[in-house]
Amino acid sequence: MLHFFINTGINDNAYYWNELTKCLRVYCDLKKVCPTLDSLNIGGGFPIKQSLAFDYDYAYMVREILMQIKRVCSDNDIPEPNIFTEFGSFTVGESGGAIFRVLHQKQQNDREKWNMIDSSFMTNLPDTWAINKRFIMLPINRWNEDYERVLLGGLTCDSDDYYNSEQHANAIYLPRFDRNEPLYIGFFNTGAYQETVGGFGGLKHCLIPEPRHVLIQRDGEGKIHTEIFSEEQTADDFLKILGY
C-alpha cells in the first residue's frame, strides 16, 4: 500500500489536484518495480460542516478523485489500485456537541464584552485553542431577543482560554446577557478528536470538571431517547483520583 495524505484537506483547488497527480505518478512508478503493490490510501481530509453557510459537493469530489486515478493508471498501463480512505472527522464529526451556560459578562474596555462560559474551551474543545478550529455555534434559547456582539472566554487561568472569533469569518452575536435569564450556547459537530485530545475523566487543567455526558439516539420509529452516560465530575471525584 502507498499512503498519501495532504494536511490542507481534500479541496477542489489546483493545489490538491496537483499533489494527487504527483502521488499517482509515484504509485505507477512503484508498481513497475514492485508488482505486489495493489493499494492506494488517499488519507483523510473530507471536511465537515463548520458553519451554516458550509457548501461542499462530496459526490463531485469522489467522482473526480476516481477519474483522476483511473486516467493516470490508464496512461501508464497500470491496473487501478484498491482505494482506502481515513475520513475520521467526516465519519464521526456530526456525532457530538457541547452545551455551555453563560455565567456572567465582563466589560473589557469600551468595545469588548466577554461572555464567560461555565467550563473551558481548552479542556472540552481543545482544537479551538490549539488550531483555532471553528465549530457551528448557536444560542440554545432566547432566540427572539435582542442580540449583541460578544467574545467568549473559558474559566481557566489561561489568557488563551477563549474562542478565537478573530480567526473566523464572522463575529459572534448572542442574545443580550441578562443575570435573571440564563443563556445557553451550543457547539455542534464536535464529535471528532475533542475528547480523544482532551481526555475523558481524570484531571483537567485548573481542575475544570468533566461535564455531564448525555447520549441522544433515535429509534426505528423516529422517537428521540436520551440516556445519562456519565454525570459531571465532583470535588470528591477529584480527591479520589489524587489519592485522598
From TrEMBL:
InterPro entries: Ala_racemase/Decarboxylase_C, Arg_decrbxlase, De-COase2_N, PLP-binding_barrel. Its EC number is 4.1.1.19. It comes from the Eukaryota. This is Arginine decarboxylase. PANTHER family: ARGININE DECARBOXYLASE (PTHR43295), BIOSYNTHETIC ARGININE DECARBOXYLASE (PTHR43295:SF9). It catalyses: L-arginine + H(+) = agmatine + CO2. It comes from Ancylostoma ceylanicum. Pfam families: Orn_Arg_deC_N. GO terms for biological process: L-arginine catabolic process; putrescine biosynthetic process from arginine; spermidine biosynthetic process. Belongs to the Orn/Lys/Arg decarboxylase class-II family. SpeA subfamily. The keyword Magnesium applies. Keywords: Decarboxylase, Lyase, Magnesium, Pyridoxal phosphate, Spermidine biosynthesis. GO terms for molecular function: arginine decarboxylase activity. Its cofactor is Mg(2+); pyridoxal 5'-phosphate. The lineage of its organism: Eukaryota, Metazoa, Ecdysozoa, Nematoda, Chromadorea. Residues 2-92 form the Orn/DAP/Arg decarboxylase 2 N-terminal domain. Pathway: Amine and polyamine biosynthesis; agmatine biosynthesis; agmatine from L-arginine: step 1/1.
